[in-house]
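Thread title: Can someone regenerate the structure for this chain?

I was given the following input by a collaborator and told the matching structure tokens would be attached. They weren't. Posting the sequence so someone can regenerate them.
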Amino acid sequence: MQTVIHPSSERGKVDIGWLNSHHSFSFGHWYNPEKVHFGALRVLNDDIVKGGGGFGTHPHDNMEIISIPLNGSLAHKDSTGTDGIIKTGDVQIMSAGSGIRHSEFNPSSSDATNFLQIWVIPKLRNIQPRYGQLTFDEKDRVNKWQVVVSPDEKDKALWINQDSIFALTKLDEGKELSYVPKFKNNGVYLFVIDGEIVVDNKNISRRDAIGISETDGFTIKASKTSEVLAIEVPMLH
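Best answer:
Regenerated them for you:
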């Protein structure tokens, strides 16, 4: 089993007033040659958007873009005709494909919104753009994995144009949970949203991450009550 640890303190930082962002991988003006991607996982931004702030209309293509609100809501509008709001408990995905334009704003004038924006390199290029949004019951991830993004319709999750799985868990203190990659030779990037876990005898704390590859499975143990996102992706080089 191969592992790479990305401490929270080593993330890129951007603060432009209405946006306070931390980048796990090179993004925008922040570049770290050792943190360009983990397999097909290209971007993991931990964004805090102040009340009334947001991203104006801008284009994307050939990227799978997943948004997971952690606190607050996010108003979304795009060129597929989608116009709505995602809130805590929701997960959103855009398969940008041949090209999509969208905007994202915090609909609250006073409360900040914290969300994860994640980009995955697609399996097929130039597909017709797609949009998906689902609300998940957080009780269904207590001490087990709740799959929220998957290419397999049987998972009843958001469809993604890649052999990739996104799963969330809320793990009680002292509990253990195993993860077995669904796709052969995939790696798994674990991002600790809150709490602290032990993986491969390594302590991974709040907003730290660990990339795991070359394994058929592993176990995590919660040192304290924890919330963890697992992102399984092909190990592109």
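The mean pLDDT is 95.
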